[in-house]
Amino acid sequence: MKLRDELKFDDKGLLTAIVVDDESGDVIMCAFMNRTAIEKTIATGQMHYYSRSRGKLWLKGESSGHTQDLRSVAIDCDGDAIVFRVKQHVAACHTGHFSCFHRALEDDGETLRVTSEPVFDPKAVY
User: Fold this and answer.
1) Bridge partner list, 49
2) What are the beta bridge partners of residue 69?
3) How many structural domains comprise the chain?
4) Stated pTM of the model
């Protein structure tokens, strides 16, 4: 069975990419990829994504230097989502936090709290 034959892209040619920090096991990002992004990621060992807002391929860390080294790849049973384990350099989130998932829902069911401190100043990087 070949990866390229098992992937099921949506009508825009994209699929959901879930990114996990290989060291901690925490989900640090959710992004989108087209076939080219997946191929470039596997060929280079560096994470590439497809930006829906910019309509183009991008290399994670191309402006910040906060790259992601590919460690492993898995797909779900339907082939419409892909999980990457990565070594994250500095941080995944453009807000300065290590993970994009740095806000958690409180017990009241509506209030969000920030669960981590930023690891870099986004104003200094972007």
Assistant:
1) 58
2) 46, 87
3) 1
4) 0.95
Q: Which has the closest alpha carbon to 23: 107, 84, 85, 95?
A: 85
What letter represents residue 105's amino acid? L
Residue 77's CB is within 10 A of a number of other CB atoms, namely: 7
CATH number of the domain bearing residue 27:
3.10.20.810
47's tokens: 């994470």
**Cα distances (angstroms) measured from residue 126 to each of 2, 16, 28, 89, 91:** 39, 25, 19, 16, 13
Strand bridging mode 27-33 / 15-21:
antiparallel
Q: Which domain holds residue 9?
A: 3-93
Q: How far apart are CA 50 and CA 28, in angstroms?
A: 17
Angle value at C-alpha 122, between 118 and 48, nearest 5 degrees:
95
Query: Do the domain assignments include residue 77?
Result: yes
Distance CA(107)–CA(8), nearest Å, equals 37
Kindly report, residue by residue over 28-78, the tens digit of the pLDDT.
Answer: 999 999 999 999 999 999 999 999 999 999 999 999 999 999 999 999 999
Cα separation, 116 vs 126, whole angstroms: 20
